[in-house]
Design goal:
Length: 487
């Protein structure tokens, strides 16, 4: 149940007809309602450009839920949920339209959560509209989506526009990876287990791999994606957030700023990749047609339908070094791409082999210890260790074996709330630790900009890879050159 000492709230969803609202926000709000996590008087006000009456609006939202939720709509929950719904016809470029919203938001005691599920070039107009009607007062919060800008400079412009109307404590920058259960578990794994907390540095770890592989292609977002590419769409935010959590020092407590302070230090310590290393440490790719699960997949260029040429990357792999005492000499290999063989996100920690002991000769030919953190699917962990094979043999023969923990096989771990459910709830409660602070976004952009700038300077084109494969061969070469292999 929600904490009744906190003020109740209303949600305002700008962009109620958009893809994000349909696929993620309404289903998550429905599930929060089903879990009794919304206040009785919470309303959900959809903002969009349409002449819809309430009946039409309710039908539309019900259709979204039917289409995008795995579970069936329950009549009782739908009745409760639909009573919360209202529609407000606003073109955010017409400031006077906000007067209608002001009329609806008539309870000064309530927190208002404004979700900007809209293109970033509308953020400034929304802020102005809210400001004009004092809807940016201290009861008001905003949630803004990634990517915030397409470079350090453009992210500053957006952050500055928003900061004219809202304090940092009112701004919730969402990165949905931070709401995934398995990502939240990284904190527990690292800091609640002495097994790992004491063995998490360059004395014990050889290298770390972070893979975020997607099966999907561009899914009707070609125009947006072609401007951004995988580096800006995925690495700048999701992958660098994962890396920061894996690499950060232990925060002094769970407070938002304690966690964000540690993450930002990691981002500030990312080594810049020298011009002369750009081909050694970075690989970009673009998919051509291929096969996935026996189906023919069109190339990136054909997905667009207009035969437009493009050098946008749909795949990136990088060797990242962190310039601090804990991580000196431990490379982080990052890889992410569209149209890879499976949807699979995982972090693999490769521990160093033991050198000087009585097994040492034998050990050199055996795999090193690994901790495999499966973010999705098959959420869970594997630990790979060496065990003696039972036998009467007088010498110890060792074999790499797995300790496997899988969420779905454990009664207490079966229900995984979705990332957006978690993040909407945290915002309702005013908790910012799972949201990204301005300096984190900006530090991540500075580092990503430096790489993109070098790619452009050296006119680096993406290597082609067939859909359904693990990206360009050069990505394998990048890691093999260091004497290692992708997991
Ligand atoms: N879709 C996704 O999975 C993800 C999206 N995001 C981010 O979320 C945000 C929204 O994305 P998405 O839902 O895909 O975008 P869409 O283009 O699907 O939706 C945007 C919505 O904004 C509305 N809109 C645009 N201009 C105005 C205006 N002047 N007044 C009122 N409404 C307006 C559009 O209304 P109309 O229909 O009338 O044009 C549309 O419903 C973006 O910032 C995106 O980068 C981030 C991660 C994932
Ligand atoms: O933010 C984004 O994330 C999705 C991948 O999210 P996931 O939760 O399904 O792993 C990605 O497909 C999209 O391009 C990007 O904008």
């Amino acid at each position: 149940m929600i904490n009744l000492n906190l003020p109740s709230c209303d949600f305002v969803i700008f962009g109620t007809k958009g893809d994000l609202a349909k696929r993620k926000l309404f289903p998550s709000l429905y599930r929060l309602d089903k879990a009794n996590k919304l206040y009785d008087n919470t309303r959900i006000i959809g903002v969009g450009r349409a002449d819809w009456n309430k009946k039409k609006y309710l039908n539309i939202i019900k259709e979204y839920l039917k289409k995008f939720m795995k579970e069936k709509i329950e009549n009782f929950i739908w009745t409760k949920f639909s009573n919360r719904l209202e529609f407000c016809n606003i073109d955010v470029n017409n400031m006077s339209d906000f007067a209608q919203l002001k009329k609806i938001l008539n309870d000064p005691e309530k927190v208002i959560i404004n979700y900007f599920a809209m293109p970033p070039n509308t953020f400034s107009a929304i802020c102005r509209g809210l400001g004009a009607f004092n809807l940016n007062n201290n009861m008001s919060r905003i949630i803004i989506e990634k990517p915030l800008g397409s470079s350090f400079k453009t992210s500053q412009i957006i952050n500055n526009q928003v900061a004219k109307y809202f304090q940092e404590s009112q701004i919730f920058r969402i990165d949905h990876y931070l709401g995934k259960e398995t990502v939240l578990n990284l904190l527990s794994l690292r800091f609640a287990n002495s097994l790992f907390s004491k063995n998490w540095d360059n004395n014990t770890i050889d290298h770390i791999q972070i893979t975020v592989a997607e099966e999907v292609g561009i899914e009707g977002r070609w125009k947006y994606f072609n401007e951004f590419g995988q580096m800006r769409d995925m690495v700048q935010n999701h992958l660098l957030q994962l890396l920061s959590i894996i690499a950060m020092e232990q925060p002094i407590n769970f407070h938002a700023d304690s966690i964000r302070n540690e993450k930002v230090k990691v981002l500030q310590s990312l080594s810049l990749i020298k011009d002369s290393d750009i081909n050694k440490k970075t690989v970009i790719g673009q998919y051509t047609s291929g096969y996935l699960h026996g189906k023919v997949i069109p190339s990136y260029l054909d997905e667009n339908g207009s035969n437009k040429k493009s050098n946008t990357e749909t795949f990136v792999s990088l060797r990242v070094d962190i310039d601090n005492i804990r991580w000196k000499g431990v490379p982080f290999y990052l890889r992410t791409g569209k149209r890879l063989p499976c949807k699979c996100s995982e972090i693999v920690i490769f521990f160093k082999k033991i050198t000087l002991n009585f097994f040492s000769e034998h050990l050199q030919s055996l795999p090193q210890n690994k901790l495999i953190i499966r973010l999705e699917p098959n959420e869970g962990l594997d630990i790979q260790i060496l065990n003696k094979i039972p036998s009467l043999n007088l010498v110890h023969v060792l074999k790499s074996t797995k300790l496997d923990f899988c969420y779905s096989k454990n009664e207490n771990f079966k229900h995984l709330p979705s990332a957006y459910e978690r993040l909407l709830l945290e915002c309702m409660l005013g908790m910012q630790s799972l949201f990204v602070r301005r300096d984190e976004v900006e530090e991540a952009w500075k580092w990503v900009d430096s790489i993109i700038y070098t790619w452009e300077k050296h006119v680096k084109y993406p290597e082609l890879y067939s859909a359904g494969t693990w990206g360009p061969l050069l990505s394998n070469n990048m890691i093999i050159r260091d004497g290692r292999f992708w997991s």
